[in-house]
User: Which sequence fits this backbone?
């Protein structure tokens, strides 16, 4: 092991270590920087907000229609591809604007290519989504899936959708984080969502009273600690109950409106 005194130059042939102040010192800081980048893109880019809203609605529709696992995976990857392309396009535009503030054909060419990548990803996602949802028009098959009891993956998907909604509200408010403060209480949302899941699994009045009482205690603790206001915990609870009911019970209610397949009856004497 070679020990050099402080301030000594790096020996020839050995790469110099990066001393950039922008380099993250641990994975937690790197994760926070990445989250800040996503939040900045969502806050400043209208197209990013549109994509997130559209894909949240598509994901909710997929959960309510009880799409098969592979189709949901294809849908999620297609949506993620568009979001990634949009963020890369935003980063490229920002880098070009830092290099020059004047019109240059090369700069326009770079921005056009980046925007084109978003268009290609969006068209791909649209084709995948249309193929999947057109397959859901087989009403009898779809009705049979929607009448099945909710599964763990569907509950997890609904919870992830709820967390996305909470983060979106926090980012739009421009303050707070998932753990502390903000325009909506993430703890209250999670508590009431879990309470709704328990009620669906164990539909008993006593159980319902107990679990919602526990969720109310969680929400009250956030208010008493001064982290959230009453309005913020109520918003979290309402959002949680709305998504839980839509995903866990909504398909059963909607399936009753879908027509059942009728088997034609042959007339007497027909073979």
Assistant:
């Amino acid at each position: 092991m070679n020990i050099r005194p402080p301030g000594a130059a790096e020996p020839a042939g050995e790469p110099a270590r990066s001393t950039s102040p922008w380099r993250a010192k641990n994975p937690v800081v790197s994760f926070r920087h990445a989250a800040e980048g996503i939040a900045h893109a969502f806050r400043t880019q209208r197209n990013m907000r549109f994509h997130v809203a559209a894909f949240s609605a598509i994901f909710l529709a997929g959960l309510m229609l009880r799409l098969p696992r592979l189709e949901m995976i294809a849908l999620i990857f297609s949506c993620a591809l568009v979001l990634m392309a949009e963020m890369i396009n935003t980063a490229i535009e920002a880098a070009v604007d830092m290099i020059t503030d004047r019109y240059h054909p090369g700069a326009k060419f770079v921005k056009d290519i980046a925007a084109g990548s978003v268009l290609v990803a969006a068209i791909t996602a649209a084709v995948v989504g249309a193929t999947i949802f057109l397959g859901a028009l087989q009403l009898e098959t779809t009705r049979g899936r929607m009448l099945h009891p909710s599964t763990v993956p569907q509950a997890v998907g609904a919870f992830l959708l709820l967390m996305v909604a909470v983060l979106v509200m926090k980012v739009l408010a421009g303050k707070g984080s998932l753990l502390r403060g903000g325009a909506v209480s993430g703890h209250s949302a999670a508590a009431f969502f879990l309470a709704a899941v328990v009620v669906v699994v164990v539909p008993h009045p006593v159980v319902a009273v107990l679990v919602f009482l526990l969720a109310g205690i969680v929400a009250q603790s956030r208010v008493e600690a001064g982290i959230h206001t009453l309005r913020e915990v109520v918003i979290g609870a309402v959002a949680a109950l709305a998504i839980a009911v839509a995903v866990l019970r909504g398909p059963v209610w909607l399936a009753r409106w879908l027509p059942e397949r009728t088997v034609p009856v042959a007339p007497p004497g027909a073979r």
Remarks:
- Residues 89 and 175 are 25 Å apart (CA to CA).
- The first helix runs from residue 27 to 44.
- The two ends are 93 Å apart (CA to CA).
